Amino acid sequence: MKKSQRMQILVDVSKRKEDEVVKMLARDQTRLQQDQQKLAELKDYASQYDQQRNLLGLSPYLTTNYQHFVDRVQQAIQQQETQVRRSQQQVDMTMKRWQDARAKTKGMDWLKEKSVDEEMRFSDRQEQKQIDEFASRVFFERMKH
Question: Which residues form a coiled coil (predicted)?
Answer without folding.
Answer: 32-97
